[in-house]
Automatic annotation (TrEMBL):
Pfam families with a match to the protein in the record: ArgoL1, ArgoL2, ArgoN, Piwi
Biased composition (Polar residues): 179-201, 208-218, 276-285
The name this protein goes by in its record: Piwi domain-containing protein
Limits of the Piwi domain: 892-1229
InterPro entries: ArgoL1 (IPR014811), ArgoL2 (IPR032472), Argonaute_N (IPR032474), PAZ_dom_sf (IPR036085), Piwi (IPR003165), Piwi_ago-like (IPR045246), RNaseH-like_sf (IPR012337), RNaseH_sf (IPR036397)
Source superkingdom: Eukaryota
GO MF entries: nucleic acid binding
Location of region: Disordered: 179-262, 276-299
Naturally occurring in which organism (per UniProt): Oleoguttula mirabilis
Matches recorded under SMART domains: DUF1785, Piwi
Amino acid sequence: MPKAKTTTTTKQLCVRCPDHPSADSFSHQNDFAKCLKQYPTTPVPIKNKQGLDTGESKGAKYTANELWWGFNDGPNTLDLSDASVCKELLEVAKAAGSKHQYQLNMSDAEEQIWYTKTVDAKQQAVFQDVPITKGMLEEAVMKVYAPKTEAEKKVEKDRKKQEAALKKNAIVDAVKNTAQSLKRTESTDAVNTSAMGQSGDLQYRPNPGSTSDPSATNRTDDSNGNSDGDHSDKQLSQQTGGAGDDKDSDGNQAGNVSQKAVPATAISFTRYCPANQSHRNQKGTTDMPHQVPTPQTRPLDDPPAHNQLRAFTAAIPAIQQDHASLVSAAVHLQESDTTSKQPLEYHELRDCLATLNDSYQVLSNHFTVTIPKDKALFEYHVLGMPDKVTRPKRRVLILDMIECDQTLYANRQSIVTDYRKKIISYVPLFTDDQVTAGTDVAQVAVPNYNPGTRDQPMTQALTLRFVARHDLNGLRDFVAGRDESYKDSGAAEAMNIVIAKAVADGSPDTFQVGNNRFYYRPGWKDLQNQSDVESSGLVGIRGYYSAIKPAMGAVLLNVNTVTSAFYKAQTLDKYLDHFYKFGWFPGDPQNSRITHPIESYRLLEKAQKHLSGLRVWVDFERSQPGDQDNAIDSPNRRTKTLAELGTYPQFQQFPDEAGQSVSVWKHITKKYPQAVKQGDDEYPTGNVGRKAPGPRKYYLARQLKVLSDQMYRGFPLPPDVTASMIDIARRRPDANYRAILGEGVASLGLHNASLPPMLQGLGISISRNMIRLPARMITNPKIMYKRDFNGINVTTGQWRVNRNTQFLNTVHGFSGLSTKGVATVQFFKPRGRMEYDQHKEKYLINWYNMHNLNGIQKTQALNASKPYEEISNWDEDSLKQYFQKFQGKLHLAILIFPNQSKENRERYATFKIVMDQHLGMKSICFNETKMVKSLRNFNPARDVMMDGALVDYIRNIAMKLNLRCGNFNHTVRQQDLPKIGGSTCSTMILGADVTHPGSGSLRGTPSIAAVVGSIDNQFGLLPASMRLNPPRQEIIADMEQMVYERLAAWSANNNQTLPASILYYRDGVGDSMYATVRATELLHIRSAWDKLCKQRYPNQTLPKLKLTAVVVTKRHHTRLYPRNMAGPREGNPLMTKSGNCPPGTVVDSGITSPYYFDFYLQSHNILQGSAKPAHYFVLENGMGFTAQELQDLTYSLCHTYGKSTTAVSYAPPAYYADRLCERGRLYLKPLLDGAQQHRNLTEAQIWTLAEGFFYRGGGAVQRGNPWHAAHEGKMFWM
């Protein structure tokens, strides 16, 4: 009989046989079925090669006594509850107890006695405080794994099903009851005005329980989605405080938006989660405390709504415990099987709300969507499209399919399409609604006109396949709190397509881009400017975004303003006229206009990139007398795609109908003389066929008109165009508010007395008013600088510092490890005159007068006789060689660019590559135009610049430089950092982001990932790691190693200890990636911590790492508006001067998830335009933050951004990572810009080239980070 092990194994072995000599090689860890098969204890039948029994058997490999059942070694405590199989076994053993039927034999008993009395045993083997014997385990194995009869199996299956149902009902029962109390009453304007005063919004508020109807909690929805027994007008008036009594916290009448404010839709909303059960006003909020009745005044029976709320409060611990067990099991499974690709589907449940009442309310650009019961959408896909078909062609084919098929055409009022592949219907097509998904229900032959077929149609066979039936009851149950497990498999997207149809039918001035964006043709402005060739023919068009959003208590429609760049509807020659302002194309027939050949080809390349792929219209009649093809001028046949620009028509050759080579000019002037005008030969031709060697088809430039509604594709936009776009899009909140409720709602068809037919057919109704939400205003933190013990107050998201304000940390100077002494500085500039050359000496005086600003190291000129060094050659090798002569002499290089032209941006990138990667020198760049514009009321052509005029600009420079030296500027008080503040440092904050190549980048260009991490309890300095990431992959591939580097830096700064907890802010992840981030990146954070832990403490066991992970997103369309948009701005604590909600406004209900822990926080102030709140979604909360703690902490951190004296728009750790990714893009600039010389490389070659660019520095490859070793540990990219 084998002896029990006394050494600790590093593997979790099979509970049945951990003491077997070959146990370490077992592949069936925690798998009893495999264990029984591999090590049977009964005779095994012998089978032949065909798998048939031979009638013989072989003896068991081991007897039962030779296999040790279920005791861990080490401390001898049986604790295997993380493995579901083990847990089931142990629970059966525990239930069996001492009355088990299994008869211990002598060897078993002796072994049990030996085991429990051995010297190494510290306690008896137990499970959930119950001693477990070997016999109990063997009895449990017999019960669990003994073969069952069919009747026993059915009983067991029914039992488990019943238990699962009871468990699920217990978790969501209170939520379901709460959701059933939600009431949607959209009354007449007069009733709403009486109930809500002048409020022009829809309100979420705690239900005061104005009805005593005991059946209120059991009301069911009727077929129109309304509750049986809705409040009467009188009850509604009582709920809202009587006619005209709805006032805000200042006693002002609520919602006085304008004289034309529309009445509100009232919603009685019972909270899903109370903030805390003590009903006290928490620190850092302007909310009024709950009014809790005293025992003398408490009614005998609370209204039903309050009973539901209290029931949910009581259910929270059970919900959290059950949810936590699911998460724990999933995490354990993920950790034990690192090869698994199955993402974790569980996130942090919301256990409370930080917003206690409705004393502070805001509006949000969401509209409630009411969906009747028992409605469904049917989704079909169109298959069989030609290869490489364009979107316009795909649209034509799908429309032709609908017209050609009798059933589709007959149901055309009941179907919508995205014109890509989906067709959505609210009635089943061809068959009943029980048809199996994946069934092909129709085949339709449609005409297909292809280039090169001489306009003769071919037949394209398209197939319609039934894909899914989207039961909208599931969506209704999900938002109402009745079904947390609901996973949207396409219902929301299908509803978006339905709404898109309503928009398309609602206004002839509206056009659609994708499923969610709609643009208003009359709302355009010209973007073409004289300074940028690539702005040719561009216009900015105002539009609207709309999308269905499942939220807390309701399905919402999110509507927001958008502005995008489009191509103007004009002939091709008009576009080329703008290019001619910058030069001429190769082969220009007028020799006097020929420019340098290289520049001509570059100009042609830019024109090709700008115009190729656009849809164009043949802008003349091509039909000739006697032609048999009468359809040649039909709209479909006149719509073409511009494949490329040709050369001038006199020189452009192509094969005519007879196959003879002929010039375009000769062919068109002969065949279509009426369509030719003087000067048409001065522009290149346009090929609307295919590129060579395919069939080509040329027209003159003036004969092709670019069609409207085509979005600009050459992102990023040119800088001047971007500035113009920002000016167009930057509108005050009240202007956006009015636009959404006016033009936006009209575009969606919601302003009509009746909704569009498609929505009517579904029975869907959409509120015409924005929702009103309870919000909370977080108390501002205090800002801490050196020797400022009381802290500086924050006012509207900003604070003031002066010359005497000292940065909190200035240990490291420009010249090395100390700020003592004087550092040498040299100013550089491009050769030639500066933008404001008359002020260039004043720039120097301003710098040297401020050289000790805020405590940074004093500086002096390297060469006083030559204040400016001029740079002539800007290629990388020349610039590197030029600055090498300054190494060892120069501590800080200051380069002044006159403006932000494209040429100077190229120079900036090369300069930073040399300084960051090759030489490791400290540097800073000044933008002369910005520097001068920072002076108020200063005319650079007329006024004289004072010696101290640039103090604000140089202070901003000083903040950057202090960070680049390895210091930090300021922080907030420790008491403003819930859970992580204090004199000792036990928490590390991580931030991460990934940036991807754009549409113009070379195929195979890598993405770039960055991770930053704090090193102390000030959270002001966050050094970083950066790596190449697989192309367009959002998940960080080298996460473990980068986190390991950040942990090592933290440990080196904290006496070689490790952080007990990590707070992780992840930037820019869409909700579809949440589970994957949790399954990979969070696992890698733990792995990195474990790796360093084993190295630092090889013989110790540390407490498990506490990890809280939060995804922060800015790319969304949720906006918050002050409730009283027409109120005064000066001195109004509920509105900034720009008309936005004040910084610190947080919303965690109404527009948030029905179940999970998320919130919207507007942390910053802006001077112009509408502020965008950041959305925070908690993936995991191992640190145990309450809603208020995490919101307050995040808001405080937004005040720690190192180079600003204002609060930033989202958590700085994620912001820093984003900025570092932007710096990394400079290193790959040729690939990201789609450099012509690299376009023929394969993806593997592109990756190799990217590595060469990324690791220019000599030892960078070995370190992993792409910058020079001198920059390690410093935030040089800020």
